[in-house]
Structure formats: C-alpha cells, structure tokens
Specification:
Length: about 280
C-alpha cells in the first residue's frame, strides 16, 4: 500500500493505493465522517487481485480544502469522483462503498453505467433509508459530533465515535483513529463536514441525489453486504432494497454492526473478491 496525491480540478486529492497496474481497477469509498483508512485491513489483500484506489472524498480526509456552499455536498463529491476516475484513466472499474460512500458509489454507477462493471454496497442507511428515518439518524449524529469536531483533535471522541459502529470495539484500527484526529485538526474541515451533513438533512436540496426511488434503475451487478446488528441501518431496509434491484444479492455478516470491512476483514475480503472475480 502507498499514498498518492492527484490534482483533480485544482484540488489535491489523496488516494491510498495497492495492486499491479494492469489489474482490474477497484474504487473504495469511505463513509461520511470517515476517511480512506477504514480500508486498512482490505487494501493490500484486495490488491492481490485488483488495482485498488481508496480516495479521501472531496471535503474529507486530506482532499481539500473546499467550500460546498449552497450546493449539496454529495453533488460536488460525485462530480469530483467522475473527474478523479478520468484523471486516473479508468475506462472500466468496480466500485465498493461503505455507508455514505455506498450512496455516492451507487450514484457513480448511475452516472457512468457503461464504465462501472460491478458495485458493492456496504451497510448504507444513506442509500436505503426513507427520508424521515435518515434525518432522524443524522440529526443526533450532528448534535453529538459538532462540539468535538469544531473543538479540534480528540482521540477519545474518535475512539468512542467509531467504536459505536462496531460490534466489538477492539476491531477498530488504531491507525484509523490517530489519522482521524490528525485530519480533523485541519482548519477547514469542520466547516466542510457541517455543510455536508446539513445538506444531507435538507431533503429539498438532497432529494435529487437520493436513490431509494431509483433502485430499479441500478442495473449494475451489485453485492449488498450488511451487519446483522447494525443499529443505524436496519437489515430490513437492505432486504427490501435488494428485492427491488434487478441484479443484486445480499450477504449478511453475523455479530457485525456497520463496519464489516474491519470487523470481519477476512470474510469481507473473501466475499468481495469472490463477487468481483466471477
């Protein structure tokens, strides 16, 4: 694994990368408050079969600074990712997204249906929850996180915040927590984070970028993975969504909440690789 920065429309864009240049490309997309390091247990293993790119999405990690302004952050992130895959020269590629990253990844598949070969959606209320349920989840998250994020680096906060999404706190990579503390010390990122989460709760603005009413249009062959014990994304929402998608299948992880990529890394890596290598 290595780190590379790319100039994408004037924005320094960080990617964690692995794999041989000629291997099938795989784009890994992190969740809303998080960064590319959620894939620390996956990048090198997946890199045995794929050319892996795990970017910090626009306004997250070290990809910025940015002001989202009045435009929904998801719209800006989608446009930025389209430019990134063009910058990387990826004619065809797979997409694997976690939580909010799965929403963005699905939007990318809808935007570029002839270029996204296969799609993996991992535990995503952002993608599958009804509007009211999504807002009910985001509002307390915003209130809980705002003071700590504006207050600067705090390892205790990030340990509690990320552990809340895991069935066992011990599975959370320490390297992820230290890097989150560093990322949120940047002077611009708290405002970008808040602009983004508020735009998600603005249903009028974010409505065109919701996919719950467009699931029948997601024709890309899709694997949906879900944690049985996910508290923010009930498994019933995944079952209902998969039943509406033309080419989707569901894989449920037991004793798992929201972060299967590091809660059960071996099973996750095997499941995703098998699906993508068919």
């Amino acid at each position: 694994m290595w780190t590379q920065f790319y100039d994408v429309d004037g924005i320094a864009t960080r990617c964690l990368e692995a794999g041989d240049e000629g291997a099938p490309p795989l784009l890994l997309l992190h969740g809303h408050d998080l960064i590319a390091e959620i894939w620390l247990a996956n990048i090198d293993v997946l890199g045995e079969n794929f050319r892996v790119f795990a970017p910090d999405m626009l306004g997250s990690g070290f990809t910025g600074p940015v002001e989202f302004g009045d435009r929904p952050a998801v719209a800006s992130r989608l446009a930025h990712l389209v430019k990134l895959v063009d910058r990387l020269g990826l004619d065809r590629f797979h997409v694997c997204g976690a939580s909010y990253g799965a929403l963005v990844g699905t939007l990318l598949a809808l935007e570029l249906p002839d270029r996204v070969d296969r799609l993996v959606i991992n535990g995503s209320a952002s993608a599958f929850a009804p509007d009211e349920a999504l807002v009910a989840t985001l509002k307390p998250m915003h209130e809980y996180s705002r003071e700590a994020i504006y207050g600067g680096p705090n390892l205790t906060f990030w340990r509690d915040r990320v552990s809340h999404g895991a069935f066992e706190a011990a599975t959370v990579p320490e390297g992820l927590l230290v890097m989150l503390m560093t990322v949120y010390a940047q002077p611009w990122i708290a405002r970008a984070w808040e602009q983004s989460i508020l735009s998600m709760m603005d249903l009028d603005a974010s409505g065109p970028y919701r996919i719950l009413d467009r699931l029948e249009d997601v024709v890309t062959e899709t694997l949906v993975t879900w944690g049985r014990e996910d508290r923010g994304a009930p498994i019933a929402s995944a079952e209902s969504a998969v039943a509406r998608m033309p080419n989707a299948e569901l894989e449920v992880f037991e004793q798992c909440r929201h972060m299967m990529m590091f809660e059960h890394p071996e099973l996750f890596n095997d499941t995703v690789s098998e699906f993508l290598c068919r």
